[in-house]
């Protein structure tokens, strides 16, 4: 697969992440994708080759691979020394069909929060399973997190298939287990592919060792899966979190002068900058500003010094409105008639990411988009059991627990149900003392005790 010769801006951008248990071969798989798609610079490849030779890499278990592909992604000194991934490593590469942003995430349980970070904005996640070990508890945890985050595309890569002699029966058993877990938690259309990251089987090129597998290679799958924006385009209403109110202090850009009536002064210019989180907006559309509820219409859309007639997700633009409304950073501009009520009481799913446990009565900060308010945890109503995928009654949450809680906010926020709006239905729980992130939160649409609830969001 060759590198694209056309400008990258013409390619579809696809974000994906890896996940899996310790030593499942995530970094090696990423290295294989980079190596076989010829996305590695010559000097980088030479450095990795020298390091691999110095460490005596090559030939293990009959392997013909002469370099340690994991070195292409494990950039931290602690990662190189321990032979594990700790932080999320982002890599960029392209083929003749698509441009990719890849997040290689850790496998250790204590770094689950890094996996959440990498998967939260992904169009797809590749979950690795060691063919010798099958589906483990960490696999179930990762699949549960992906269901919580509503990642639109999930691929299970059964790695190290070469170490089980390319056994079809082993692969089919793991495939059935993975599909069963996915079915229990509500993940649909999960693809399962047998690969050898070390040898390259079914990663970029089809393998002659697996004639019983007739599906696509991993890269072919990633090149053809739809992006989140493609899946949601036309389905979600317009949402625009305001990041900045623009009031220029100098002369107005000449490119924008035509957008104003003759004789209008640049001092009259007021616009609201941000990124279109979902849907689209056109000049003339009616909008509502949240949480105030004030209404207006869009009279201008500015982008990079020029005026547009329409903007779609995920474009970053500035909006000009027909009315002078008190709008601040953190407010949300939405299509009129598409938003319910702003919320001051939340019922949410929490993926607890801190060693500091959550207890009822805890005072926290809730960060939603660019706005942060105080919050009080009124009740912890359940904890997800990774074996049964039911909820048990608890009084708190510990590191890596997934559970439900009721939170009271100091002021109402324009938050929506995550199942309907992935971007506006998510928030962070922050420690008010040190500013560290405590949890990733996803808004649910009904309060109550879910001790016997199945895993349905």
From TrEMBL:
The keyword Mitochondrion does not apply. Coiled coil: none annotated. InterPro entries: CysN_GTP-bd, CysN_II, CysN_NoDQ_III, G_TR_CS, GTP-eEF1A_C, P-loop_NTPase, SO4_adenylTrfase_lsu, T_Tr_GTP-bd_dom. GO terms for molecular function: nucleotidyltransferase activity. Its EC number is 2.7.7.4. Transmembrane segments: none annotated. It comes from the Bacteria. Pfam families: GTP-eEF1A_C, GTP_EFTU. Residues 11-230 form the Tr-type G domain. PROSITE patterns: G_TR_1, G_TR_2. It is an enzyme of class 2 (transferase). Keywords: ATP-binding, GTP-binding, Nucleotide-binding, Nucleotidyltransferase, Transferase. The keyword ATP-binding applies. This is sulfate adenylyltransferase.
